[in-house]
Amino acid sequence: MSPQPLKALLLTSPGCVHCAAMKKILEKFATEGLITLEVIDVASQPEVAQRHGIKSVPWLKLGTLEFSGAQHEPELRTWITQVHSVEGVGAYLKHLLATDDLELAIKLTRENPEWINSLLLLVADEDKDIKLQLGVSAIIEEFEGQPILQNNVDKLGNLATHDNPRIRADVAHFLALSHCEKARGVLQQLTQDSDREVREIASDALRDASH
Predict the structure, then answer these.
(1) CATH for 1-84, options being 1.10.10.10, 3.40.30.10, 3.40.50.2300, 3.30.465.10
(2) Which long-range contacts (CB under 8 A, 24 or more apart) does 70-78 make?
(3) 21: which of 47, 173, 179, 204 lies 20 to 30 Å off by Cα?
(4) Do 135 and 105 meet the contact criterion of CB atoms below 8 Å apart?
(5) What angle do CA 80, 85, 86 make, to 5 degrees?
(6) Residues 21-51 pLDDT 10s
């Protein structure tokens, strides 16, 4: 059975060259059955831009993904095929962090709690650079003590035995942020870790939790 066409919302304004180019690309995708397209002129419906917090166009909502500014056909076609996969959302979050759009990454993760699975995929990525590592941490830290983190303590615990001590250290930090009783057992184990930093993070977390 063919997948349902993805919903796409494009905000444009009169005289915007990039808007016209994006509209043409998306109309092509619509004729291919990849998307259903709604185009709104913000000059005639400014309340739509206000509702989405949009300050410039073109702006595109593609399923759960959001894009500001001109986008090219190959990239958009790729996002359409990846939008429903854990790996695809991970690639999108990676894209947002690479382009310094942490605020949008946090907003969309809050709106789509299942994206935590994609974040954990990035946590486990041994090849990520320091910028991505810090960005992923910044997103997860926004959900300290919240269900989105507490409900995924078991998944975090599965990463607590990762071969890479940097990843185990991050996991200890995130488990501490969960403020979840269920995390104590894993943190207790990590106090015996072979890596000093991991031991310290886990020990500090348990000490703070007991006060």
Answers:
(1) 3.40.30.10
(2) 70/18, 70/21, 70/22, 71/22, 71/25, 72/25, 73/25, 73/28, 76/25, 76/26, 76/29, 77/29, 77/34
(3) 47
(4) yes
(5) 135
(6) 999 999 999 999 999 999 999 999 999 999 9
